[in-house]
Amino acid sequence: MRDDTVEKEGTWEELDDLRRRARDEDWLIDVEASCSFERSLGKGSSGEAFLARWRGARVVVKRIEALKTTLAKRAFARECAIMARVRHPNVLAFYGAALSESRCDVVVEHAAGGTLKAWLHESGRQKRSLSERLDVGMDVARAFAYLESRTPSVMHRDLKPSNVFVAADGRAMVADFGLSRFVAANGEELTGETGTYIYMAPEVIRSEHYDNRADVFSYGVLLHELVTGIEPYQPHNSTAIQIATAVADQGLRPNIPEDTHAGLAAIIEMCWQQNASDRPSFAVILESMETMVPDILKEQEAKAAARRENPSVQAKAFQNLSHTFATWSSKMAELGGGL
Q1: What is the per-residue burial (b if ≥16 Cβ within 10 Å, else e) of 146-159?
Q2: Count of other CB atoms within 10 angstroms of residue 210
Q3: Is 316 annotated as a binding residue?
Q4: DSSP tag of 198
Q5: pTM of the prediction?
Q6: What are the catalytic residues?
Q7: Each residue of 225-259: pLDDT tens digit?
Q8: PANTHER family under this entry (predicted)?
């Protein structure tokens, strides 16, 4: 049977195996008996999300109605298998699922801060400080360094702000593993256009072979968005497909403002290199971010202090900043040369 065909009603050949795995791994949940539903959080193309309580904690129940095709059922089973095996503070926690022929309910951690997209861009919300935005950037890098380090490693394949959630304490958590894959240690590569166009790597857009470094490209676009506070490629009059074509064939990238910290600009540019082999690993990205960000924030405070002081103090502060910028540019150039 082809992957996109609709199975006969009442059949799902792999369902018993999926239930058995859920019982063995202790993530099979009787949602109706154990969850107390509070309110709907919204409907999407595949179902509806509800705020609920489970074992005394607030959770989100994603109710997925009528998985009709073989492809959809296999994708759901794969998503559950991946989510059940990943555990990290910066990955949205998966608690379990209820599985039946007619409906599947997935129970996950509740992120009170909503999506990163709303957190960063929604009108009426306060402007996020550079410190907050860089903290989120490091959290996302931590999540992907963890996914990269697993055996087998995990490719997310759809990193974007709407697939990152923010906890009440400001912690960022990567979510939505519906397009994810385990990647074998033998260097298995994937093909096919998968993800969201404006965050998609050139090799994915061209339906060429790709691996985990496609996620690195997406991270570079996301980090640019966090640093600038501007959605990618804005303002523009092009469609997402036109932008993607230009990214793949002409090397189009979002503009990096001149006042962007030299080290941050270097990381962004390294992540979205046209040639995937020139991109760093998430381990390298995370190490660079964790080393660099404290200095960046100190520099920001020095700038603010300099503006409040007399011109002689300001001149000295900017002289120190200039030296630090040069040092970071040199470090990043050395890092890039070692890839």
Answers
A1: bbbeeeebbbbbbb
A2: 24
A3: no
A4: G
A5: 0.86
A6: 158
A7: 999 999 999 888 899 999 999 999 999 999 999 99
A8: OS09G0443600 PROTEIN, SERINE/THREONINE-PROTEIN KINASE TNNI3K-RELATED
